[in-house]
Amino acid sequence: MELSNSKPFEKPDAGLFLGTIVDVVDMPGVQTQYGIKNKVRILWVLGATAAGQRVLDSEGKPLTVAFIKNGSWNEKSELYKMVRMILNAPPPLITKTEELSALLLGRANQLFVTLTPDQKRPGEFYANVTGVMPLAPGQVPPVAPAGFVRAKDKPRTVAGSNGQPVQTYTTPPQPVQTYTTPPQASEAAPAFTTPANYPTKNVAF
What we know:
Layout: E1 15-32, E2 35-47, E3 64-70, E4 72-73, H1 78-87, H2 97-104, E5 107-117, E6 125-133, E7 156-159, E8 165-168, E9 179-180, E10 203-204
Parallel strand pairs: 5-9
Antiparallel strand pairs: 1-2, 1-5, 2-3, 4-10, 5-6, 7-8
């Protein structure tokens, strides 16, 4: 049997990038140090904010960066805080990943990317989105690369009637449209005050 080496994931450098959300992925039943958790992954494709900035990998494909957090929806959750930064406004009540996908896919912003030490692999780092703000006037956001397929639309291998592996396919996906988040009157994110009638129930999905 031949052993195959998977292609290492190439990370962007730390810095300010343009980013467009090209996928929102449901990750149910992830084992963590706190038990089994449902997580959500938001994936951006990156674009340059300055000439010469590295936004392509060694094969010439656009670099991406992901945000992975628990699927919990309340004002203190990391997912809620990230979505609020993406929208530059308080988000609506979300109860399903499909609703989150509909809200976020195609949104473009400026992203602050940092490199954080990987506790499980000494000497390694992972890219982390630590800040989001609206695009500046004239900035052109990146688009999903040609042939990009969302995680939910990728073929999956299942056991056929005779026990042999068979690939199943979903309906061909629609291209991700890109649109920007208009800035507020002030470039800084406004302080958030919960309206009296705003739902605050903690929702997990």
